[in-house]
């Protein structure tokens, strides 16, 4: 467990951008954002998606399904990934996403979303980038969601290194 924690800390520190100066995206770069989902977020997502599964709203239904409390929709949590990418690269086109739901997210949990560039290739003045995607909770120790995303970026120059700060 200690080795995993040290590896995670290294991953978060390495190539995370914190200055406001423009940077060029490279393989290995990490982009991130932290978010706490509220009951209003869950309700708004249900309104748009029409997903009114009682697991998201009724504590008793959640407990019967072996959860501590009502769940934040997994797809709502995964919406952090295109948000992170487009915040650094306005005009990015999200092409694909794979997802693995590893652990429940509850209202009020602080979620740390992270995307890391794993491959980058230029084609016709655009860039196709594959990202490793992960969401963590409990101070970056518990993976709640992971997968891979592909996006087409208009360029690899970041206008702002950390748009959520």
UniProtKB/TrEMBL annotation:
InterPro entries, per the entry:
HotDog_dom_sf (IPR029069), MaoC-like_dom (IPR002539), UPF0336/Enoyl-CoA_hydratase (IPR050965)
Q: Which CDD domains match?
A: R_hydratase
* TM regions (residue ranges): none
Domain MaoC-like: start-end pairs:
33-126
Pfam families found in the cross-reference section: MaoC_dehydratas
Q: Which keywords does the record carry? A: Lyase, Signal
Q: Hey, what's the signal peptide range on this chain?
A: 1-18
- Which branch of life, at top level? Eukaryota
Q: GO molecular function, one example?
A: hydro-lyase activity
Output this protein's name: 3-hydroxyacyl-[acyl-carrier-protein] dehydratase
């Amino acid at each position: 467990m200690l080795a995993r924690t040290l590896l995670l800390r290294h991953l978060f520190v390495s190539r995370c951008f914190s200055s406001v100066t423009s940077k060029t995206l490279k393989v290995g770069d990490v982009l991130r954002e932290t978010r706490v989902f509220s009951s209003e977020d869950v309700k708004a997502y249900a309104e748009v998606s029409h997903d009114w599964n009682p697991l998201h709203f009724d504590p008793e239904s959640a407990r019967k399904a072996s959860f501590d409390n009502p769940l934040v929709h997994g797809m709502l949590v995964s919406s952090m990934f295109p948000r992170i990418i487009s915040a650094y690269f306005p005009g990015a086109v999200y092409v694909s996403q794979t997802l693995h739901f590893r652990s429940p997210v509850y209202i009020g949990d602080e979620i740390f979303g992270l995307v890391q560039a794993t491959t980058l290739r230029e084609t016709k003045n655009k860039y196709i980038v594959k990202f490793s995607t992960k969401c963590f909770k409990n101070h970056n120790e518990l993976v709640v969601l992971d997968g891979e995303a592909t996006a087409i970026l208009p360029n690899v120059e970041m206008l702002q290194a950390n748009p959520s700060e």
